Amino acid sequence: MRFCTLKLLNQFKTIRIRNNQIVQSSRFTVQNDLTRRQIDKIPIKLSSIVCFYSSDSKKHFLEIEKKAESIKNVFEQKKVQIKDTEQKIRQKGEELVKDLRHQREVTGQILKLKKDHLVKDILETKAKVREKIEGVVERENIFTIPNVLCVARIAMSPYLGYVILQDNYNLALGLLVFAGFTDLLDGYIARNWEGQSSKMGSFLDPMADKVLIATLFISLTWQELIPLYLTLLIVARDAALVAAGFVIRYISLPPPKTLSRYFDATHATAQLAPTFISKLNTAVQLLLVGTTLASPVFGYVDHPALQALCGITAASTIVSAISYLVSKDTYKVLKKKL
Q1: Which of 82, 191, 196, 219 could form a Cys-Cys staple with 161, CB 3.0–4.6 A?
Q2: Which residue, 152, 302, 282, 158, is CA-closest to 225?
Q3: What's the mean pLDDT in 123-149?
């Protein structure tokens, strides 16, 4: 208190010396000019000023301490509330993550079950479609004696052409006689033996004849025993018939049209029915190649009868090709009722 009183006296002295100028101290401030004048004119008791100053400062400090204490308490409360909020947010986040994981597991299981059911339904549908297709398409045994003879005749044709090109006409004539015998034999077996006739044979037998005749005509033309124009005519007609056979196979094959089913010989989808003129043309062609092949052996090459036979063969080839275009019964699509 003594220290405060001395300091206050010094402040009053400073005021008088500086001609009523206002000087602010660290803890006391004169409010206005009126107060300064009163201080100069009216004598003030030191004891009252000291008491006033000390009591006022103490109250001021107490109020500041209370305010600081209240602010501190509010801050602590806010801090606790923030911690509680953070903890609640963390708990909510953990619960949300758990829910998302659980939902993902449940969704994955549901999708897996749906996938399994879908795959099962697809397999069952595929099996049912296959059963219906098997009911529509007729299956048959293709490993018959006539079919084996036809395949043997097709396989022998390239070798027969090679023998002709080697000028070995005697062996070539023998192979041709053997091929003709197998042609007659497979037809007889298919007509008279039970279970030996097949729809596949209706394709193989004419195909074997076409391959054999085309090979003979090309080889004999190379040897200058048959005119080139006749060979080109016959090969073009046979190539067109083979292409038509592939087209008929595609048209008669029920969906789905896949390569494996297209080339599956056990699925009979159509049956060929050659015209009478076509059969007659095949016989004329075989007669021509047979007599031409025998001409070097028996010495009648370039005989007029061979020239006349070439003309007849050309005419019959053209007429047979036209008959396939005009006739509607050259093939029959095979179907079963469901």
Answers
A1: 219
A2: 302
A3: 70
Half-sphere exposure of 309 (CA within 13 A, CB side): 17
Burial of 179 (0-12, 13-18, 19+ CB in 10 A): buried
Burial of residue 288, with CB atoms counted within 10 A of its CB: 0-12 exposed, 13-18 middle, 19 or more buried = buried
Residues in the chain: 338
| DSSP of 88-111 | HHHHHHHHHHHHHHHHHHHHHHHH
Is the pTM higher than 0.85? The answer reads no
How does DSSP classify residue 267?
E
Q: Concatenated DSSP letters for 33-80?
A: HHHHHHHHHS---HHHHHHHHHHHHHHHHHHHHHHHHHHHHHHHHHHH
Element (DSSP H or E) covering residue 333: strand 331-333
Tokens of 129: 């479609």
Take residue 205 and report the two structure tokens written for it: 């037998």
d(CA 102, CA 8): 78
Whether the Cβ atoms of residue 289 and residue 216 lie closer than 8 Å to each other? yes
What band does 334 get if pLDDT is binned at 50, 70 and 90?
A: low
Helix 169-192 / helix 199-222 crossing angle, nearest 10 deg: 170
Q: Which helix (H) or strand (E) holds 139?
A: strand 138-139
β-bridge mates for residue 332, sequence order? 271
Residue type, 94: E
Report the Cα–Cα distance between both ends of the chain, in Å, rounded.
124
Separation of alpha carbons 259 and 115, rounded Å: 29
